[in-house]
Every structure is written in structure tokens, then in C-alpha cells.
Amino acid sequence: MKPFYITTPIYYVNDVPHLGHAYTTIAADALARFHAMAGDDVLMLTGTDEHGEKVQEAAAKRGLTPQALCDDVAPRFAHTWTQLDMGPFTADGARRRFIRTTDARHKAVVARLWRRIRARNADDLYLATYQGWYCVGCEAFYKESDLDKAGDAWHCKTHGRPVAWLDKERSWFFRMSRYGEALLEHIERHPHFIQPEHFKNEVVSFVRGGLRDLSVSRTSFAWGIPVPEDDPEGRAHVIYVWMDALTNYVSALGGFDDDAGGEPREFGTYWRAATHLIGKDILRFHAVYWPCFLMAAGLPLPRTILCHGWWTIGGRKISKSIPATRVDPVKLASDLGELSSVPETGIDALKYFLLRETPLGNDGDLIFENLLDRYNADLANDLGNLINRITAMVTKFGAQATPAADAALAAEGPFAALRRVADEAARDARAAWDGFQPSRALEATWRLVAEGNRLVDATQPWALAKAGDNVRLAQVLHDLLATAWWLRRMIAPVLPATARTLHGWLGVADDAPLGWPEPGQLGHDLPPVKVVASTPLFPRLDDKRKDALLARWLPAEPAAAAPADPAAPAPAPVTAPVLPPIQFADFEKLDLRVGKVKAAVKVAKADKLLHLTVDLGEGRDRSIVSGIAQRYAPEALVGKQVVVVVNLEPRKMKGILSEGMILAAGDDAILGLAAVDAEVPPGTRVR
Ligand code: ME8
User: Fold this and answer.
1) What separation in Å is there between the alpha carbon of 279 and the centre of ligand 1?
2) pLDDT at residue 626 is higher than 50
3) Catalytic annotation on 307?
4) Position with higher pLDDT, 433 vs 410
5) Is 345 within the bounds of a domain?
6) Are residues 536 and 611 in the same domain?
7) Which of 6, 8, 10, 11 for a ligand 1 pocket mutation test, highest count of atoms within 8 Å of Cβ?
8) Ligand 1 pocket by C-beta < 6 Å: which residues?
9) Most buried in the list 107, 203, 390, 682, measured by CB within 10 Å?
10) Considering only CA atoms, which residue is closest to atom 23 of ligand 1?
């Protein structure tokens, strides 16, 4: 059995899981499931990154010790993966492991890595003074050329927030400059080391630009693993959180050597088969720092760094720092499965969309309408429909046991076409999975789904039954069951709940072999079946249902979709003083109306402004410029009711006439639009 070791990043515990984290874990889970079906010896690892300044700060904000914060949040990650049908991940020697960097075993391996580097080349680690910019969000040191200047301050490109100046902090340095050439050579000799290709090119040009030595210890805070040797000046250093975190991939295998210097069995088996799946935000740490640390310690490198893009909403990265983007994957999945006879298939629908919609290395904008459209097209109309048709026809036409295939018929017309498409789909999907391309794998799989539906349309089994053409009818039913059995396996990496359900409906034995379908075997590999009638797995969403889901999800109601942030400070009290009293007649002068947003676009060169077209029941729409762009994506507003002051003097903003003012509460970060809780005709007065 070939080993296959797939890892996700270990996530920071300053945040609870959001859709971005779920995406990586879902992709890793799908790869793990595919490889298991392909007969590989699979180990999957995820976990939490618990040390460093960022976690220490988050704990302080919540009034907790760092350890208490970690103990609260780490299980939430593990639980989320179980809720998304990927668990359980456990700490012990299981096939699915969860590692925490506060585990004693991990800490010991990090200290060993340090000593090992020192023992090989003592001057690879040396004491000096660090001065420069640091982003606590990234836990990374930056040159000014890596940063954006906004006003007087330098800002991190990922977090968009000002970076801190570390002023002459005494620090251990790692001589990374020594390893640039060796790294370039490794990348050249192993063309699949960094995938996809465009990320490899990015790394190569970064390394060619020259590697600088890296500060790998901190003295200004204590939440980390102590450097395992003394500083002659007597200062206490903790190991840089990235050196600590990256080592998790090895400590989860029991480390790279034991007390006697021998290689632990799991390290020997899995390390060279390691694939680190990561987001592009942390490419440099994985494709540059980590290999350099390993080379300095005389250790082999992992096989592949597999990098994916970012999910954004309205063009903004899904991240903790932008509350409106923090979509809760569990909520989304449960909403999607709400009407299904098997609610867990909502989880499958979410996984399917995320992996099908965008190729792994690309960025994807999460457009909820597209999610619902894909659900209807690919899952309700195509897959769900096919499954229901197959089980319904087999039960209806009485072929409860496996109908026999007729060799002559199988080589003919639609039956031959089905075999050709099935073979191609299995081959192409397998190659795509092997090449880390889930989107292509699903596309290939759906060619077989389409062909199954085509077979039903082309052969019209109900007409065959009516005409008493039992030989042909048996062939159709046989081929449909054979197709269902192939699909049960081919969808399993991404739609495990659907696959399990289909398995049950087909009545196949629990221990039937679940290897990847082999070309030429359609029908020949069909185990005995005992089909039961099915119920709708992916009921079609009509417009009313779609609108109801969109209303739940769109960021205009952030509370509905955003998970609570355990690290967020309590909101500040509203302290604005109450204004002096006014007469009712003064209030009556204000004309407030309900409007319906018909269109919304960003205003060029104005970060805060949106240009809205609003129906106020006047027979013509009004143009209104509103300062809500930091909080609302334009597409989230279309169709929404807003409250508008309609009798303010019109004025021009950025050259655009604004004929009204939208009422909202709060400022950029916690802005909420004033709303009326019933649908009322545009132009209705608000008093
Ligand atoms: O970086 N789109 O942890 P983290 C896609 N602890 N993926 C996203 C995403 C988005 N919008 N947002 C987050 C850390 N991710 C370190 C890792 S590993 C030794 C240490 C995913 O909690 C993506 O995989 O900030 C990204 O790399 C990871 O979450 C960052 O998680």
C-alpha cells in the first residue's frame, strides 16, 4: 500500500472556524477519501496552532489565560469537522489525527528540531538584535517592500491593519540565507514540490531575490515553547511561533527521531509521502521557511506543498477581521439540507459547491445565488433525479435482485455509449484526483451522471414495460444499477453522506468492496443488490425558498451567518449623549419612506460609498449615494428594503447626485441598516 499523508494548516485558536478554514479541511478530507478508495494507506492530520503573540493577545482580550483560551477553542475546531461529517479527529494513533501545539509531545519535538539544527551547524542559530516590522495577524516579519503605506502607517497586505515596530529585540536568528540555493535546486529537481505551477513560480522568484536570515525567537512575551538553551545575557526566549507550528506535521508522526536517534516508524512511513494543503496566505512559511528548517536539521522534505486560493465575499477575503464575511459553514450546510429526507446531504451540497465551483489553486468569490443554482442544476436535477429515477424504476418494474446483462445488447447503442462514458469518467476523475484537481474530478464524475439520465431518456423504461420488451428493460435496469454502483463510489470523496445513503437504498452489503471503479468493469463489479424506494435527497429549491435562504445568508444580517468570535472584545457602550428635545411638529418635517433597492454599485475611488438605485413608489427611481460600502457588498443590497430620508436637500457626492439618505445604525465596522420587518409597498411612510 502506498502511503498518503495529507495535512491541513493547524488553525489559530484566536478565531472559531469559518468557511475559509472549512474549505481547506473539506478539500483535504476529499483527497484523503479518494486515496483511501484508490487503495492507499492514508493518514490525515489537522489541528490547532496555540502559541504566539496573537493567541496571547486574544486570551488577554477575553480575560482568559492563553491555555484556557486554547482549551476552549481547540475542541470547537474538532467538533466543527465532526459536524461537517469529517470526524472524528482524535489525538491518538488514529487515521484522522488532531494535533495541538500545546501537547507535551509536540513541544519536545520542536525542542529537538532546534537542537538538531544546532548540532549540525552550530552557527545556523545565532544571537543578534532584531529591529523591524511585525504583523501579529500573520505572526510574520516584513520588509517595507512587502507592506502597503496608508497615511503615515505601514499596513499588512493580508490583514489590512498597521504593523508593529519591533525595536531592537534580542533574538535568535536562523541562517536561512545559507539554504536558498539548496532550496532552488530541490524545487527544480522535484517539479511537483510546489503546486499548482503559478505558486511555484512565485516561490522561485522570491527565493531568487535572496533569503534573509530569520528571527526565530521572541523575548517580549512568554506564550510559546522555550528555546532549549541559555542566552548568555540570561533572557528567556520562546521559539518563533511558525517554527513551532510547522513542526506539528512531524510531531504528529511521533517526531523524526527517538531518544536513541532512530527514526520512528510512522515518520519513516509517511513523511516522504506528505502533502501539505494550505491557503496562499501561508505559502512562504511552508515553501521556504519549513524546507530550510528541515534541510538545516538534515531531514528530508515533504513531497508536496499544495496551495489553494482564497474564498472572498463581494471581493473581500473571508476572514475573522471582516465580520460580514465570516460565514458559518455548519449553518450553511444545515440550511441546505433542511428540506432533504437526509439532512446531512446539505453538508455534501456545500462541499460539492466549494470543490466544484473553483479550481483548487484559484480564488473564488462566494456568491450565494451560484450556490443555489448549482444545487438545483447539479444536485437536484442531475444527481438527485438520477438516484430517484433508478430506485423508483427498479422497484416499480419488479427487478429487486440484480437483473442480468445481455452481452449482445450491452455492446449496442445507448448501452455501449454508457460504457464508454463511464470508463472515461472513471479514468479522468481518477487522474484529476491524483493531480489534486477536485473540480475536474467532479466535472468528470458528472459526465456519468448525465449519461445515466440520458440512458433513461433514450430507452424510456416505462414504455419498454408497457410494450413487454422485458429483455431490453432488464438491460436498462441492469445498466442503471451498475451506474448507481459506480456513482456511489465516485461521489464518495465529496458527497459521503449521499454515497452512504445510496449504498443503503441499493441494499448492497455493508462490506462490499469500495475501490475506485476500474474501466471495463461497469456491471461486472456490481454486487448483489436489494433496492428499496428512495426519497428526495436534494429537493429542488423554488424561487420562494431561494429568496428565503438568501435573506438568511446575505451579509445584511451578519448575526445570522457569523459565528460568535470568542476573542472579540465586548462591544463598547453607546455613549453618544441624547440630543435636546424637539417638538412633534419638527419631527413631522422629516419625511421617512421605505424604499426598495433595485441596483447597487461601488463608487469609484471612494472606499466607503455605494451608489444605489432605489424605488420609492414615485414612478421613477431615485439615485442615492450612501456611506455603507465597508460593511455591505453591493449585491447583498439588491431587493432589500431600506428606510430613506426623502426630503433632504439633494447633493452631489463624488460627482453623483444623491436624492436621499439611507438610515443606518453604527459605524463602518458594526453598521446595521434600519429595517421594517414586513414587506411594504415602496414609498410607504415611516413615522
Ligand atoms: O495561518 N479562503 O492559521 P489560520 C480560503 N496557524 N482558505 C482560507 C480562508 C479563505 N478566505 N481563510 C482561512 C494560520 N483559510 C496558521 C497556520 S500551519 C503550520 C499554521 C484557511 O487560522 C487557509 O487554509 O489563520 C489558510 O491558509 C488557513 O485557513 C489560515 O488559518
Assistant:
1) 6
2) yes
3) no
4) 433
5) no
6) no
7) 11
8) 9-12, 20-21, 23-24, 49, 245-246, 248, 278-279, 281-282, 310-311, 317-319
9) 390
10) 279
165 plus 289 within the same structural domain: yes
pLDDT of residue 390: 96
**Residue 449 pLDDT level (bands cut at 50, 70, 90):** very high
Task: Please name every residue paired with 595 in a beta bridge, in sequence order, or none if there are none.
Answer: 642
625 contacts 610 by C-beta, under 8 angstroms: yes
Q: Give the model confidence (pLDDT) of 583-608 as tens digits.
A: 777 788 889 999 999 988 888 888 88
Ligand 1 atom, smallest distance to 246 CA = 19
pLDDT tens for each residue of 221-242: 999 999 999 999 999 999 999 9
- Look up residue 226 and give its DSSP letter: B
Q: At 385, which amino acid appears?
A: N
Owning domain of residue 444:
391-543
The answer on 518 and 640 residing in a single domain is no
At residue 280, the 3 state secondary structure works out as helix
Of the chain, the percentage scoring pLDDT greater than 90 comes to 72
**3-state secondary structure (DSSP) of residue 538:** coil
- Which CATH number covers residue 597? 2.40.50.140
- The CA–CA distances, whole Å, from 671 to 281, 312, 354, 419, 665 equal 28, 20, 29, 57, 6
The reply to whether 317 belongs to the active site is yes
Q: Is 588 exposed, middle or buried (0-12, 13-18, 19+ CB in 10 A)?
A: exposed
Is beta strand 311-313 parallel, antiparallel or unpaired with respect to 364-365?
Answer: parallel
Asked whether residue 305 falls in the same domain as residue 416, the answer is no
Please indicate whether residue 320 is annotated as part of the active site: yes
Domains identified in the chain, total number: 3
Which CATH number do you get for residue 533? 1.10.730.10
The pLDDT score that the predictor gives to residue 668 is 57
Measured torsion, CA atoms of residues 476, 482, 485, 487, in degrees rounded to the nearest 10: -70
**From ligand 1's centre to the CA of 276, what distance in Å?**
12
pLDDT at 656 over 60: yes
Choose the catalytic residue: 51, 70, 107, 138: 138
135 tagged catalytic = yes
The predicted structure's pLDDT at residue 345? 97
Q: In a 3-state reduction of DSSP, which class is residue 80?
A: helix
**186 and 120 within one domain:** yes
Band of pLDDT at residue 459, cut at 50, 70 and 90: very high
- Considering only CA atoms, which residue is closest to atom 31 of ligand 1? 11
Say how far apart CA 333 and CA 77 lie, in whole Å.
Answer: 16
- Top mutation candidate among 15, 19, 24, 285 for ligand 1, by most atoms within 8 Å of CB: 24
Residue nearest to atom 4 of ligand 1 (CA): 11
Q: Is position 156 annotated as part of the catalytic site?
A: yes
Residue 359 lies in a domain: no
